[in-house]
Amino acid sequence: MPPARPPHPPVSSIDVARLAGVSQSAVSRAFSPGASVSPKMRAKVLEAAAALGYRPSVIPRIMLSGRSRMIGIVVGGLDNPFYAAVLDHFATALQTRGLQTLMMRVPHALSLDGALDQLAGYRVDAVVTALAVGSRQAASALSALRIPIVCFNSRLTAPWISTIRSNNRAAGRLAAELLADRGVRRAAWLAGPADSAAARERGRGFADGLAARGLLPPIVLAADDSYDGGYAAMGALMHREPPPAGLFCSNDLMACGAIDALRARGLSVPGDVLVAGYDNIPQAAWHGYDLTTFDQQAEQMAAAALELLDDPATATGGQSRTIPARLIERGSTSGLIT
Amino acid sequence: MPPARPPHPPVSSIDVARLAGVSQSAVSRAFSPGASVSPKMRAKVLEAAAALGYRPSVIPRIMLSGRSRMIGIVVGGLDNPFYAAVLDHFATALQTRGLQTLMMRVPHALSLDGALDQLAGYRVDAVVTALAVGSRQAASALSALRIPIVCFNSRLTAPWISTIRSNNRAAGRLAAELLADRGVRRAAWLAGPADSAAARERGRGFADGLAARGLLPPIVLAADDSYDGGYAAMGALMHREPPPAGLFCSNDLMACGAIDALRARGLSVPGDVLVAGYDNIPQAAWHGYDLTTFDQQAEQMAAAALELLDDPATATGGQSRTIPARLIERGSTSGLIT
DNA sequence: TTGTATGCGTTATCAC
DNA sequence: GTGATAACGCATACAA
C-alpha cells in the first residue's frame, strides 16, 4: 500500500502538463521568471494551470536548492507587548525579502534547544530568538546543528551563534543619572527574573550610576517579569517601608504595574515617586502612564539580524552587534524633587 | 553546472549510512519510532548520526505524504494585544499537536489572497486568519486553492472556508442593558474601522439594546482601531458637546484611549462616564483601567479552529461555530448613576 | 524553444 | 532484521 495521501491532493505540474498537452519541464519554465519559453507556450500552460488551480510547490525546490527560505523565530510569550513588537517587525522585514516566518512559542528558555531541533528538521535557513542561550553547554549543542542563530540580548556568542544587544549597562547608568538630576536620593531597582542577563546588566549599570553620584545602592526588588509582578513587588515594599523617591524597572510592563500599585496607595507618579522603565512598549506612551523609558529599537534590531544573516561571512556566527537604546523622556520623571 | 548548493549543506541520511557502514534505509528506520530495527543497529546508527550532527529532514516526508504539518496563520498587526494573544494561543495549541506555525503578517485585509498564494506554495495543511474575507469574490479565489481556511469573526462561509465567531450582536445588546441598568440615559458607540463586520454587529446589537429599553440611539463615533483612535475620537466629541454617560467601544484598545481622554478633561471613569470594551486584553485588567469588557475566549476559538481542521468532514469548509463572548464586569461600569 | 532524463532526501514496499 | 528500489514534485543539463 502506498503511503496515505491527503484526501485532496494538490495539483502537480504533471497534471498541468497533461491537460495542456506539453512536457512537465515546460510547465516549470512557464512559472520561472527568466526561463526561455515562447509566449504561446506560456499562455497555454498558464491557462491549464488556472483551470486546475495549480500553485507550484516550493518543497521540491527546497530539496534541490538546500535553502527553504524559511527563518525560524523562537519567542517566549507574546503577552509582553515588547516581544509582540519584535515578532511583528521581524515578520515584516522577512516578508519584504520574500522569506517566511516559522514561529515557535516555547514555555521556558530551557526548551530552546528542543525548538531548534524541530526547526532544524524543517531545514530553516536561520533561527532568530529573543530567548537567551543560558549555558555554554547549551550553546555547543546549538552550534552542532550548523544553523545560523541570532540571539537578542544574550551575552554569549559561539560558532553559528551571534548576538544583537542593547547597551543595557549604559542605559542603567543613564537612568540613575536622570533620577539623581531630578533630586532623587533614595532609589529602587525593580529586577526581573534572575535568568535574564540583559536585566542584570541594566541593574548593574543603575547601581554604578547611583554610586557615581555618591548615592546609596538601590533597594533591590525581585519580581515576576509582568505587570502583576511589578504591582505585587511595589505593593509589598510599601507594606514595609516608605517608598523610595525614584524607581527603575527592568521592563515597562513591570513599571506599569508598579505605577498602579503606587497610585493605589494614594501616591502620585511623578509627584511623589519618579519611575522609569525599559522597552518603550506602546502602553508606556499611554496618557495614563506617560512613562519614561528606553527604546530598544526593535526595528533596527531586526534589520541588524537580517544583515548578519545575509552575509555568508557573518552568518556562521561569533558576531556581536550593539544597538544603542534611546532614552525616551516622558512625564513619569518630570516631577522635580528638591 | 549543478544547482547552487548552500555553503554548508546539511548532513543527509546517506552520509550517516556511509559512516556507520549500513544501508540508508537502516538510518531511516533508526529514526522511525515503530520500525523494526535491532537495538544494536539503532545504537550504531545513532552514534554515527550524533558524530555528524545529523537531523532527519522533514522535507522529503512532505513530498511523500502530501502533508507538511505546517499551518499558516495570517495576522494583521500585533500591536493590538488581542491579536497577539490569538497568535500566542494558536501557536501553543499547534505545538501541542506537533504542528508548525507558518506566520504571515499582512498590512491590509486586501492582501489576504496574496499571503495565501505564498502559503499555498509551501503546501500548508490549513490556514487560520483573524482577517475577514471581504467579498464573495475574494472567497471564491480562496476556495480555488482547496486549502482549508478558518476565519475568525468573519460572516462569510464558502467551500474550504469556515468561520469561528463571537456572538457580537448579543454582546452588544448586553452592553446596552448593563449601561441602562446603571442609569445611563444617553450612550455613545465608539465604532471601529468600517470594514470590520464583527464591529458592525456589536454596534447594531448595542443600538438594539438601547432601543429595547426605550433609550435614544447611540451617538456614533468613528475612529481608528487603536488607542490613539479612541483617544482622539473621545477628545473630539467633548469639544462639541457634553460627554454621554455611557460608552461602548468596539475594542478594548480604543476604550483605554477613550478613558484616558475623558480623564484628561477632568472627568472620572466610572464616576462621570461608564465605559465598556471588547476583547478582554490584559490591559483591561490593569488597575488604572479596570475595564468592563467581553472576553472572546481566544483559547477556545483556537481549539474550535483546530477541531474543525482535524475532522476531514468539516475541514472542507462551509462550517460556522460560535464561541459566546463572556461579560467581564469590572470597575469601569460600577458607578451608579441615578 | 521544447522534450527527456536525472537527482534532491526520505519513507514504504519488496525480496532476502 | 536488513538492503535494494521506487516514488514524491520540481528544476536543471542535455539532446533534439
Shape of chain A: elongated
Number of strands of chain A: 12
Q: Largest beta sheet of chain A, briefly?
A: 6 strands, parallel
Q: Helix share of residues of chain A?
A: 40-55%
Q: How would you write the strand order of the largest sheet of chain A?
A: 2-1-3-4-5-11
How many separate structural domains of chain A? 3
End-to-end separation of chain A:
84 Å
Percentage of β-strand residues of chain A: 15-25%
CATH evolutionary superfamily of the largest domain in chain A: Response regulator
Under CATH at level 1, the class of the largest domain in chain A stands as Alpha Beta
Helix count of chain A equals 13
Calculate the mean pLDDT score of chain A and round it. Answer: 93
Biggest interface and residues each:
A-B, 67 and 67 residues
Query: Secondary-structure element order of chain A, as H and E?
Result: HHHHEHEHEHEEHEHEHEHEEHHEE
CATH topology name of the largest domain in chain A, in short, is: Rossmann fold
Explain the overall architecture.
Chains A, B: Pfam families: LacI, Peripla_BP_3. Chains A, B: Residues 11-65 form the HTH lacI-type domain. Chains A, B: GO terms for molecular function: DNA-binding transcription factor activity; transcription cis-regulatory region binding. The structure is a homodimer of 338-residue chains. Chain A is α/β, with parallel strands linked by helices and 338 residues long. Chain A has three domains: 1-54, 434 Repressor (Amino-terminal Domain) (Orthogonal Bundle), CATH 1.10.260.40; 65-166 and 298-323, 3-Layer(aba) Sandwich (Rossmann fold), CATH 3.40.50; 168-296 and 327-333, 3-Layer(aba) Sandwich (Rossmann fold), CATH 3.40.50. Chain A is built from 13 helices and twelve strands. Chain A has helices at residues 13-20, 24-30, 39-52, 59-65, 81-96, 112-121, 136-143, 168-181, 197-212, 227-240, 252-264, 298-310, 312-315; strands spanning 70-75, 100-105, 126-129, 149-152, 161-166, 187-191, 219-222, 246-249, 274-276, 293-295, 320-323, 326-328. In chain A, the strands form three sheets. Chain A has a six-stranded parallel β-sheet, sandwiched between helices. A four-stranded parallel β-sheet of chain A has the order 7-6-8-9, sandwiched between helices. Chains A and B meet through helix 4, helix 5, strand 2, helix 6 and helix 11 of A and helix 4, helix 5, strand 2, helix 6 and helix 11 of B. Strand 2 of chain A pairs antiparallel with strand 2 (100-105) of chain B, so a sheet runs across the interface. The first copy, chain A, binds a DNA duplex (16 and 16 nucleotides) through residues 1-3, 5, 10, 12-14, 22-29, 32, 35-38, 41, 56-66.
